[in-house]
Design goal:
This protein is α/β, with parallel strands linked by helices. Helices cover about 35% and strands about 25% of the residues. The chain starts with 13 loop residues before the first helix and ends in a 7-residue tail after the last helix. Bound molecules: adenosine-5'-triphosphate. It holds the Pfam family ABC_tran.
């Protein structure tokens, strides 16, 4: 677990950093008064699947653009497999899928993917890239005749065709329906099963929860949480406990151990607790008639809201 201002975790120490898939240090990009990216450090080890989460304007796309060498940082450094982004891209080590990246209008899907393949030294066969992205049947179709979700899958084929070690995806499934999204993640599993690295920015928490090994939460250009899904959830305050507790008062509930927030309405209580076991024991001792007890883990959504909703005070 790593939160703002804490050192890089021991498992991603200097040795890992050297062979890191992605190493960002002190990265900063300001647009006038807007601190799009405000000093982030991030090391991604080869083989990790990392979700970059954050509300609109958190700085996810700007970070992705700097990793891809599309935007030059004001300060700090970007390393991709120990190289400059441009170098790593020229070598075909990075595949990218960006929000709304343009597709050549006059070309068919097959020609388009073939064109990108021809720019790389060791591409996979075009048919293979189309198959992996689930767009084989669209090979002869012009890009102007594609739906939004189909375009995204073609962009995925383009990202795969250089046979990259790292895939960087900015909201890859934004225009896809539920079925396409499922298919997309199935293809991604095939890609990551071979030990390759993925960094994807998303608004879909369930995708981060299901697919990522690690979640990096951004807010206002900074990293506010970094860890496994379980760790990020825990960071946001543990569990919610609800019960009917006859005789409970706000004063009594507020002093139960572990309680971070509480609400008392008549006999009904709802508390957020950082230690629900301790809260429950004390609750039972104080109110033996307590009943209908319900304890739920805070979802990633709850964690996301709690970690990203505070007003940024330093901006
Ligand atoms: N080229 C630019 N010129 C000026 N401001 C910019 C530019 N690009 C981004 N910004 C600003 O920088 C901040 C971060 O934007 P960014 O697109 O990186 O956020 P994001 O987390 O990707 O958001 P979203 O989820 O909406 O895509 C925003 O306030 C945005 O308005």
């Amino acid at each position: 677990m790593n939160t703002t201002g804490t050192p890089v975790p021991a498992t991603r120490d200097a040795a890992v950093r050297q062979g890191a898939a992605v190493a960002l240090s002190g990265l900063r990009k300001h647009y006038g008064e807007v601190r799009a990216v405000d000093g982030i450090d991030l090391t991604i080890a080869p083989g990790e699947v990392v979700a970059l989460l954050g509300p609109n304007g958190a700085g996810k796309s700007t970070t992705v653009d700097m990793i891809l060498g599309l935007t030059r940082p004001d300060a700090g450094q970007v390393g991709v497999f120990g190289r400059e982004p441009a170098e790593a891209i020229a070598e075909g080590a990075i595949g990218a899928m960006l929000q709304g990246g343009a597709l050549l209008e006059d070309a068919t899907v097959g020609e388009l993917v073939g064109l990108v393949a021809s720019l790389h030294r060791k591409p996979i066969p075009v048919a293979e890239a189309l198959r992996r992205a689930g767009v084989e049947e669209l090979a002869g179709r012009r890009s102007t005749k594609l739906s939004g979700g189909q375009k995204q899958r073609v962009r995925f084929a383009i990202a795969l065709v250089s046979d990259p070690d790292l895939l960087v995806l900015d909201e890859p499934t934004a225009a896809m329906d539920v079925g396409s999204r499922r298919e997309f993640w199935k293809s991604m599993h095939t890609f990551t099963d071979s030990g390759r690295t993925v960094l994807f920015a998303t608004h879909y928490l369930e995708e981060a929860e299901e697919f990522a090994d690690r979640v990096v939460l951004m807010r206002s250009g900074r990293i506010v949480a970094d860890g496994s899904v379980a760790e990020v959830r825990a960071l946001a305050g543990g569990r919610t406990l609800r019960a009917v507790a006859p005789g409970a008062t706000s004063a009594a509930v507020s002093v139960l151990p572990g309680v971070t927030e509480y609400e008392v309405r008549g006999d009904r209580i709802a508390v957020s607790s950082s230690d629900s076991d301790a809260t429950l024991r004390a609750l039972l001792a104080a109110f033996p008639a307590v009943r209908d007890i319900e304890i739920t883990a805070i979802g990633l959504e709850g964690a996301f809201l709690s970690l990203t909703s505070d007003e940024e005070t330093t901006r």
